Amino acid sequence: MSYRALRPEKITETLEALKDRIEGRFPGSGLARVCGDVLTVARDTCKRIEGVFRPHWGLRILLAFILASLLALIIVLGLKAQAFKTSDELSDLMQGVEAAVSLTIVLGGAAIFLATAESRWKRDKALKALHEIRSLVHVIDMHQLTKDPSMLGQARTSSSPERDMSPFELMRYLDYCSEMLSLTAKCAALYAEKVSDPVVVDTVGDIERLTSELSGKIWQKITIVQSLEGRDLPLPVPAQTFYRPGA
Fold this sequence. Notes:
Blueprint: H1 8-25, H2 30-52, H3 57-83, H4 87-145, H5 167-194, H6 198-227
């Protein structure tokens, strides 16, 4: 077994295990459903990579035909130039050369366009998939956004989010979010392994930096929860309306 490259099947296996862990700890939670979406994207990534980076033989055959036409045109012009002797014939030759040069420029431009068309097509496909992965990263971040350890046991208002987790449950929830972010970044890294396009590689790097920064914030929260371990935390106080004299 080689450890020099990411293996897509191992990423999906790890996500399957993570989804089971989340459902076992927080059954029916939104985080478990998000993990299911990440797992679906990971499975789709394996199929998309095979399709995106498969050679596009239609474009390659057309490019080969154009290059062969250019080569044939140059050979024909060279043979005719050797056959012309008089000045009138040379004058006709120059007119033919001028037309041939224009045709060569057109065919050359078409060849350059087709030569880069395949790479541009693959880039667009990869960027669309990476955009979906980036959106998932932000969805994961939204699920941990309201998990504020500093509010453990504090009074709630009528608009406060539900905070009925114990410190241990909160640490597990945040740890699951961090793991999911890391695995989502690994799905993006699969594209960078298969293509050397600088735009795709930079996009993957941006996603990896984003997940790393978000994971760092999550671990700051976990550190705060760990610092509260062993302390007696008051039970959550339900939302209530306070009376103000003179109101």
